[in-house]
Amino acid sequence: MARIVAVIVGLCSILPCGLASADDRLAFLIPNLYGPTGLIVDSVSPLPSGETHSAHYNASFQQSFTPFNIALATQLASVQIPTPASGFTFTFDSSVGVFKRSTESFGPILSDRAETIGRNKVSLGLNYQRFTFDSIDGVGLGDVPVVFTHDSPAPGGRADLVTTENAIEASLDQTIFFATYGITDRLDVSVAIPLVRVDLKVISDATIRRIGTTDPGVHFFATPSGGFGDERTFSTSGSATGIGDILLRAKGSIVKSGAAGLALGVDGRLPTGDEENLLGSGAASVKPFLAFSYSHQPFSPHAKVAYQWNGKSLLAGNVTTGEKKDLPDVFFYEVGADVAITKRLTLALDFLGRTVIDGERLVPETFHALDGTSTFPQVRFETASLNLLDGAVGIKVNPGGNFLVDLNVLFKLNSSGLRDKVTPLVGLEYTF
């Protein structure tokens, strides 16, 4: 097992990781969308009061987009990964001196069952997933409204606003190498190493709203011809590729009574992914879990509960200042079944729930301007717990020998958090 881990880590280290320029790090794209000093509009005329000023909208920028970056980054770094467990499980039959299959089905794809792989057995696998995120807390990523107020907003010229319509394209590709080894008939150890690619693009269409002024020279976007423009488009994009957060696991069977089994396990997540490029969470975590299964062939139900404690991460704090804070803890609850359709085909069905405790939650609201009549849609963030519910349907096919081919579809059941409507998965596994 140690040799396998060393080889995979060595391969990961020679792959291209991150971006060439520090200014292009993905976690900084949204905070730096309008430039390092925030959103500033042009001004050549004084305020109606005669006061000269800098037309600076940075205060609202910090309030609106720093929490959005935190929510986007932390959820990009904590997407569901396939279970590093074997589809083949074995027990040693002492009466004939050989190993025999202990389950008829090939088990779940994204959840867990209580069975272990068997002493001295090894399972190697490769899974690929692609997430194309389309919403966050029910708000489409193609149209996220944010209102920017003037520094020290007040009736008169400082009542002018800048409204923005923001389109965010975010995708994540994960290729996960995993290995499982049976130390004893009741104890497995596993490692999962993800190779991650993240693509992020943001387009912001900004419009000046003259709530407290009539002179366009007070607040404007300079046009190429030197005119007073009301609109400007800001955009930025980037991508990063590299090793993600490595997962280490130990799982032991603690109760086995007939067809029923209960296993206790623990996952340890190492902060090996580059957090500033959204390739990892930036925090170590520990996740103990209990897994129950009942091998009543051909139908085998299973259930799992887990709690993940997370450490401090830059992504949960403020990437612009370097402040780290605790990444939200997560409670997991899962139930499902695997059905042996034939000896070579298993259907896997799962319901997957996660409760993110005290995370950043986006809330749509209406902004009321200082003139008392004008209103605009916008979003704000609040700290609250949120439940993410998903379903999964997949198949495991045995083309021959101890090979398995996995095909799975993960789909959202509610709108909380950063979500992808449908996430495909393909995988290969070999046990010996």
Descriptive labels:
single chain, 432 residues, mainly beta, Porin, twelve-stranded antiparallel β-barrel, three-stranded antiparallel β-sheet, 2 helices, 54% strand, elongated
Mean pLDDT score: 85
Low-confidence stretches: 1-22
Largest sheet: 12 strands, antiparallel, barrel
Instruction: Give the SSE order as H and E letters.
Output: HHEEEEEEEEEEEEEEEEEEEEEEE
Compute the gyration radius: what is it? 26 Å
Which strand order do you get reading across the main beta sheet? 3-7-8-12-13-14-15-18-19-20-21-23
Mind telling me which CATH architecture this is?
Beta Barrel
**Fourth-tier CATH superfamily name:** monomeric porin ompg
Q: How much strand content do the residues show?
A: over 45%
Helix content: under 10%
Taking the alpha carbons of the first and last residues, their distance comes to 13 Å
CATH-defined fold name:
Porin
Identify the overall geometry: elongated
By CATH reckoning, the class would read: Mainly Beta
Structural class: mainly beta
* Total beta strands: 23
Structural overview:
There is one protein chain. The protein is mainly β. The chain has a single domain (2-431), classed as monomeric porin ompg (Porin). Helices cover 7% and strands 54% of the residues. The chain contains two helices and 23 strands. It has helices at residues 2-13, 58-76, and strands at residues 90-93, 98-101, 122-133, 135-136, 139-140, 144-149, 161-184, 187-209, 221-222, 228-229, 231-243, 246-257, 260-270, 285-294, 299-310, 312-318, 323-326, 330-342, 345-368, 375-397, 403-412, 418-419, 422-431. The strands form five sheets. It has a twelve-stranded antiparallel beta barrel with strand order 3-7-8-12-13-14-15-18-19-20-21-23. It starts with a helix and ends with a strand. The model is unreliable at 1-22 (pLDDT under 50).
